[in-house]
């Protein structure tokens, strides 16, 4: 007699699979009172997000596929790092530093799952940046390439008869030579002494400003500068253009300063990003730009999905014809496996590219391979005169070592590809590795449970 626990386990697996499919109809329950909790429970579920609240505890998570450049569309920028003024012994370090600065700037900019690849060629240093779904490419490209050198200047004599105005939004028209009669002195305070830059809003006019928080040494420098210049102007300079030239009203000992001007919020945010991300160790020059339109990306996605569906259906037909009832049950387990893997891709989330989709489809084939090993071992036991239940139990146990060894060797390959590869190679390795891990669970647990309930006695 089949165990009630086994039936319960199978029902749970099937219910979970149906739940993870992300039904097109959202489910919502609000303010439900239960005897187990003094606080009402709220619950909502739809294809994009889950929101569970229990008193002060709240779990909120969005579930949506992240698509790479080749599926979603976007832009690929190719930069050449100009190393002519960098000593030969320092070029590798400067190259790595440039890549890290670009990565920080892109992350601050808010582009979803960018791909940044450093490519060293004979006599050339290139950095390839892929920005999936980025709308404002010109702003992103401008942000990546700026040097963002911050400095503070004092002691210059302001030109008489001219009002020192704050710069218009997005422009810095007043250079040091235009602002001062004589060249002011550059202080010891620079961008390297900056701890953090953030966007704040003025308490009186509500206009966006950029607040600077300095390090311990930077606070000391800034305190000394303000002490020397009470009643005088100190120029805050970014890339040799005056951003702001405020009059110091009193010595500032707190280590904080504010860059004010006629900023819009996006301009203030970009300025804060540049300052936070640091300065590039060498200039960048764009030598290539490729844009993948959303329509082309959608077309690639449709073809990928069609290929995956046709591959899955062909496997189902093959398994059903070759193994009859067991093949149908294995196909159901394969469907559950597919649902689980796709949900994991959403939950992590994984950025899907064409290479990643290929890795997922390959993992489906490997999941079927595990079922074939099990069924063939079962057939051998049946030909040896064993009962169906005994053949099934031995088939699973004796096929496990082959399944384990082949999957471990594949996982080692995935690890090597992910560790040493970059870009789409890493995406392929990651999706394949996730698929392999889930396939091992599917073959041994899901398929075995389904066979136990629908085909044989308790295995």
Summarize the structure.
This protein is an alpha+beta fold.
* Percent in strands: 15-25%
* Spatial strand sequence of the major β-sheet: 1-2-3-4
CATH class of the largest domain: Mainly Alpha
Order of H and E elements: HEEEEEHEHEEHEHEEEHEEEHEHEHHH
Number of helices: 11
Instruction: State the distance separating the first and last CA atoms.
Output: 11 Å
Low-confidence stretches: 161-170
- CATH topology (fold) name of the largest domain: Multidrug efflux transporter AcrB transmembrane fold
Percent in helix: 40-55%
Q: How many E-type strands?
A: 17
CATH architecture designation of the largest domain: Up-down Bundle
Secondary-structure-derived class: alpha+beta
Overview of this protein structure:
The chain has 459 residues and is an alpha+beta fold. The chain has 4 domains: 60 residues, no CATH class; 82 residues, Alpha-Beta Plaits (2-Layer Sandwich), CATH 3.30.70.3400; 106 residues, Gyrase A, domain 2, CATH 3.30.1360; 160 residues, Multidrug efflux transporter AcrB transmembrane fold. The protein contains 11 helices and 17 strands. Strands 1-2-3-4 form a 4-stranded antiparallel sheet, with no helix packed on it. β2 and β3 form a beta hairpin. α3 packs antiparallel against α4, α8 packs across α9 and α8 packs across α11. The longest helix is centred in the C-terminal third of the chain and has 54 residues. The radius of gyration is 31 Å and the shape is elongated. The chain starts with a helix and ends in a 5-residue tail after the last helix.
């Amino acid at each position: 007699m089949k165990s009630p626990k086994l039936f319960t386990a199978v029902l749970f697996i099937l219910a979970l699979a149906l739940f993870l499919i992300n039904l097109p109809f959202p489910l919502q329950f609000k303010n439900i009172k239960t005897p187990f909790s003094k606080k009402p429970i709220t619950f909502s579920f739809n294809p994009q997000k889950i929101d569970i609240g229990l008193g002060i505890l709240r779990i909120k998570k969005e579930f949506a596929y992240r698509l790479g450049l080749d599926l979603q569309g976007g832009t690929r920028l190719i930069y050449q790092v100009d190393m002519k003024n960098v000593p030969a012994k320092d070029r590798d370090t400067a190259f790595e530093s440039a890549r890290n600065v670009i990565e920080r700037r892109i992350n601050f900019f808010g582009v979803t799952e960018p791909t940044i690849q450093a490519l060293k060629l004979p006599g050339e240093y290139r950095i390839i940046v892929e920005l999936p779904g980025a709308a404002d490419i010109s702003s992103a490209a401008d942000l990546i390439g700026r040097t963002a050198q911050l400095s503070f200047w004092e002691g210059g004599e302001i030109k008489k008869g001219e009002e020192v105005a704050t710069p218009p939004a997005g422009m810095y028209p007043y250079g040091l030579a235009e602002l001062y009669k004589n060249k002011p002195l550059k202080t010891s305070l620079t961008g390297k002494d900056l701890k953090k830059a953030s966007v704040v809003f003025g308490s009186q006019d509500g206009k966006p400003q950029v607040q600077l928080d300095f390090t311990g040494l930077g606070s000391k420098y800034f305190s000394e500068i303000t002490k020397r210049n009470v009643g005088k102007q100190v120029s805050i300079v970014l890339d040799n253009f005056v951003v702001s030239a405020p009059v110091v009203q009193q010595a500032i000992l707190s280590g904080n300063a504010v860059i004010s001007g006629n900023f819009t919020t996006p301009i203030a945010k970009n300025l804060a990003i540049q300052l936070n991300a640091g300065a590039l160790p060498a200039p960048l020059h764009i030598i290539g730009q490729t844009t993948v339109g959303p329509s082309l990306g959608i077309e690639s996605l449709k073809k990928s999905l069609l290929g995956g569906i046709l591959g899955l259906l062909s496997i189902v037909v093959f398994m059903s014809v070759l193994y009859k009832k067991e093949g149908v049950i294995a196909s159901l387990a394969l469907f559950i496996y597919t649902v689980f893997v796709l949900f994991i891709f959403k939950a992590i989330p994984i950025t899907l590219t064409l290479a990643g989709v290929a890795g997922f489809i390959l993992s489906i084939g490997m999941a079927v391979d595990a079922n074939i090993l099990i069924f063939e071992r079962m057939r051998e036991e049946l030909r040896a005169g064993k009962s169906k239940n005994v053949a099934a139990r031995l088939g699973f146990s004796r096929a496990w070592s082959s399944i384990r060894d082949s999957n471990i060797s594949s996982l080692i390959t995935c690890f090597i590809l992910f560790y040493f590869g970059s870009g789409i190679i890493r995406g392929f390795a990651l999706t394949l590795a996730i698929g392999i891990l889930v396939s091992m669970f599917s073959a041994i647990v899901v398929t075995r449970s389904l066979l136990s309930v629908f085909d044989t006695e308790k295995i």
